[in-house]
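Morning!

This is the sequence you dropped in the shared folder:
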Amino acid sequence: MNSLSRRKFLKISGATVVTAAALAGSAKTIVNAAESFSKKKGLEIIPSYCDLCFWKCGLLAYVKDGELWKVEGNPKDPLSNGRLCPRGTGGVGAHYDKERLKSPLIRKSERGEEKWVEVTWNEVFDYITDKMNKLKTDYGPESMALFSHGIGGSFFKHMMRAYGSPNETAPSFAQCRGPREVGFELTFGDVVGSPERTDIENAKCIVLIGSHLGENMHNTQVQEFSRAVENHASIIVVDPRFSVAASKAKYYLPIKPGTDMALLLAWMSVIVNENLFDADYIAKYGIGFEQFATEISQYTPEWAYIETGIDPEVIRETAREMAMYKPATLVHPGRHATWYGDDAQRSRAIALLNALLGSWGRKGGFYVPYSYSIPKYPYAPYPELKKEPLDNPDAKYPFATGEQISTGIREATISGNPYSIKGWFIYATNLMQALPNREETIKAIQNLDLMVVVDVIPSEIAGWADVVLPESVYLERYDDLNASPFREGFVGIRQPVIDAPNDQKPNWWMAKKLGEKLGLGAYFPWKDVEEYLDTRLKLKGHSLDELKKEGIIKGALQPIYFEDGVEPEFLTPSGKIEFYSTQLADAGFDPIPRFTKHPEPPAGYFRLLFGRAPVHTFSKTQSNPLLRDLFSENELWVNADLAERYGLKNGDRIKLKNQDGVVSDPIKVKATERIRQDCVYMVHGFGQKSRQLRSTYKKGASDAELVTQYKTDPLMGGTGMSVNFVTFEMEV
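The structure's back. Tokens below.
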């Protein structure tokens, strides 16, 4: 990270802390129920872990005279290393958000009209119980499906499984990282995981292909990336847009959108044809390399130039750069991998490129992660399932293993095949923003007899619910233990540091109370979540009191690289790295990735690209007063020459119309030379339509609203969403 970028980062983080302190100091004017908080005198520092993204960084919360003051990274936590990202630092604002849900709600009019009746928790649980009991009688327990995101959903998953439903999903698979995991598992027999097992700090060459480190703010990775830049790592960035990461690059390749596979194939062709691969590594661990080399050799840089627009000599030079630093070359696998519908094969190509460089299991590439295994709670066995999950009937997507396809459950809700879904339970995921083609989502919702939404704010999906349950924010509740696999095994605690301001409740309490009303009390034998957590920890020889004090317990350090003694293990059918995949061949797919030409924008249209801002998480933080002050609405990146041609200037507001005639809300133009002319770009999560969120209502434009088309990955059912095109509606 150069000095300018470091100063900018510190300015953002510092502004967040200052504003947080100001909010804490005026808490009584912001939250009417502030007097219900604990009024202990003095300063308390309480460890917990963050919920602003899936990374779950360890933090220290400062509570001053009974009021939440600030949060910062826990220096003992290996994920945060004492630092939080801007949105993590701004997590205080989640507690002080004036637009939070305050009490349980039951719909009193048509779905989507956002008209509610406030009820008690006992009344709302009676309502849900009556509906779920009727669904179980009329359609069977499998007619209920759970959509959830994050560790907070674990108790609802337990409740639904005890109820008898096998249908549980999260958009994080089919709408995000699923293709990546499938591509790497087909190659190495293992997934990249969360957090990613990327050894960025020790990499001597880092290749980012559509991966926006610094904008998609995953804390540990950004810290490691800054250190890699300081250590003069060679950075290669491939992106139609000159991102923050691109500003650190030795090589920036402004690729034509939709042609990434062509570049990957050409890179591998150069490395194979010039014998730049790690021959010893491949001979020891690989299989099918000869077939792979024969197939890949045809994809010359000259061929790729026609597709990508990248000069052949630049392709050769960057391929040689990667090979020069092998095995400490990391071709980053990315996170949001659902682009064009052939995404599992594109991710497999990234995996194969890493395999050529010998980076899997090697220092500066991909390390071997460890978990600090905490035994599960000793529950009674779940009831036997009467039906199989319905998200992937007849294994239409043969490599959708391990996690269910969210759009598959939506499709079954619409069609009733292979059986009926009549109830949705939705935890902490705004399906109106997360799933493509919101009209299909609305159509599915209208087929439901019950839809329950658990959230901390009145999100768009909450506006369509029959029942809305207000959850405590993460600083006000316990959640399950965090034992994410990482460089070193550890277990972290999320514990309440402040009282909820109104009648919000934690997820574990909702699941337990609702489970008991459903006659599932035997599956919730613990008195409260503290007893549950303490039981699990004592099975490992620890206690809840021990963990609450430090916030983290670490296991013994173990080797994480093959060269340091880790025994290589590849859980593929061959037990080796599969350059030629017999699994794919047997299923009728290409055993070696091939280039697919994707449709290009019609005349006068541009490919719609979308991404992240470092201060926001999807669509769930826009009402946070601290983060809203830093980034209140998105902008449309338009190439400066293109903007001039259309008479557009910075700050002008325009609407976008997509290929299906859907028109967006107005969005500000950002005319810039940092993007190609054949595409436009916006940050995801804005243009929200919830009338209850007045601070965010129609602020900016919604990319999700314009994503009416998607292309389904034939291997695993992921939804490629970068297949939509927009044109400018000049009159606003």
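Headline: The radius of gyration is 25 Å.

More detail when I'm at my desk.
O.
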